[in-house]
Amino acid sequence: MFCMLGISLALAAAPATAAPNPADAWSAPATTRPVIEETKFRNGDVELSGTLHLPPSSRAVAAVVVTHSASKPLRDASLYKHLTQMLPSLGIAVLTYDRRGSGKSGGKLADSDYAMLADDALAAVKMLRADRRIDPKRVGVWGLSQGGWLSLLAAARSPEVGFVVSIAAPVVTPDVQMMFRSENLLRINGYPASDIEQMRAARRAVDDYMRGTGDRAAAQKLVDAIKTKPWFDEMYIGTTVTDRATSRWRKEIEYDPLPTLDKVTVPALILYGAADPVVPVAASVARIKARQRPNIAMHVIAGADHHMVTTMSPKDQMDPAKTEEAKPDAAEYFAVLASWLTRHGLVAAETAR
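The structure corresponding to this sequence follows.
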């Protein structure tokens, strides 16, 4: 009896044999298997944390630093995954990082402005340029929406940026862009014209006060009149009109991205979606075309929305919960991006053949 119990205990302690994975019967090793490394870099006294996706190569490769859209501050956002999946196969490294004040990065977003966020990206560029596996002359910046502004601003602020890809970045001031977005959000969700006009009046009053041409109390009165509306929280206005001396919004609406383009001398690709309800694409394209800039290529992607997606309804495009997992799927976007990168010598020679 004792011996039988001992055998039973021994059998119970033996590790179970793992069931075979059926996929092993047909799987094959991938051609491109990038090295994935955690990395840290600093802008002043703030430490930022990111992930580098480095393609295997015997030569120094080009690299892209990814800047953030306003609502996607984390390195592993679905919006950025197509870059880490696509670009290493072209022989291009990709660095994604957590925006300051988010994830594993230090600092506070509230203390920053566009220039500081662009300088965070430049700190990443500097770090990559010092890496012997990266070609220091071919380190660029990719950004979408607010990140598209930041990519252009980074190139305008430093000669170390080798190229820029800017996507869905409105080339109008932020107040114009937010008015455009707010009007479309109300239209798409079927609110009456009277609601749209109330929203316009309140937003104009707040912006006028921030520019120093309006009255704070008058603006607050108009905000109070709409703050109980079911759509108010989606306007990003705030229930209290803050002092313009300390307001982050005042700093933002003073930024016109158009003059920045005149300072961008490196190759730049600017892309828009033809079906974008968030950004005034027609106005942005017209402003860019008003001046000849031979270093800038511009392309509007058929059927694509703000995130280069073609399969999302206008209503879903305005729903932050739905766009949280937005992933570009416009074939034309991928084709134009790959073609431009190849034409500018950023794709590894062995993958360009």
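The chain has two domains: 35-171+256-352, 174-251.
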